[in-house]
Amino acid sequence: MTELVDSDAKQLPRTVSTTPLPDKLATVNFDDLLLFNHTSHTVYRKMDPNLPLYFGKPSPAIDAAWADLLQYEYPAITPEEIALNPSLSYDMDRDKHPVTDKYHFALDVFHNLHCLNAVRMELDKDYYGAHDHGHVGRRAEGNHETHASQSHSQHQGALEAAQRDHIDHCMNHIRQSLQCRPDLSPAAMHVFEDTDGSKYFLGNAEKHTCYDWESIMKWAAARNPEPGYIVPVH
């Protein structure tokens, strides 16, 4: 459901905590551009070798980059802060985490990043294992009573269906998020011609106005337990 709001209204949940969410803006030039080489007449990627690599052939370096990006996925929230946010519904007895002994929430940007990482691993599931992208598969495998009455093929089919649901959910969530806060940075589109007459239509936005990511990570880190306590299932 879509509800129209005044364009001047604040759209970010600034009262989500007693430490205000960062709203510092920065002008950013995106990394990883598709460009055309006029000598070889080929399309190539221009990337900054000093920045972390998040996509490509699976490697420990790529996995470490994603682990770093998601290490503060679930900031803690106090009962007093929960009371300030009617939109956040908690069962105060059930929802306190058994290890941290705290209540937690997630900024939706981390949900999107989790989902993008799940889709990335699905593309290389032979490397990562077919059902290890959001712990959906592992959660299903823990139900031994159900599995005792299932054949191996039925069990495998259930895991594959659960994983497909997870990936479809993730891609749809990312789609909705992109439409919710669309990046309206303009990109001039250029036509390039290959030696065989094939034409390429390429363009890259020069600058983007973004929330300062470092400020967001520092804010989340200050409210987060030691990484690794919470198993994500989105």
Structure description:
It comes from Aureobasidium melanogenum (strain CBS 110374). The chain is 36% helix and 13% strand. Strand 2 and strand 3 (42-46) form a beta hairpin. It has a two-stranded antiparallel sheet with strand order 1-8. The chain has a two-stranded antiparallel sheet with strand order 2-3. It contains 8 helices and 8 strands. It has one domain.
Helix/strand layout:
Blueprint: E1 25-28, E2 33-37, E3 42-46, H1 60-69, E4 76-77, H2 79-83, E5 103-104, H3 108-123, H4 125-128, H5 136-141, H6 144-148, H7 152-180, E6 190-193, E7 199-202, E8 208-211, H8 213-222
Antiparallel strand pairs: 1-8, 2-3, 4-5, 6-7
Helix pairs in contact: 3-7
Uncertain runs are: 7-14, 135-146
Mean pLDDT: 83
Please give the radius of gyration in angstroms. Answer: 22 Å
Name the structural class: alpha+beta
Strand content: 5-15%
End-to-end span in angstroms? 21 Å
Q: What's the number of extended β-strand segments?
A: 8
Count structural domains.
Answer: 1
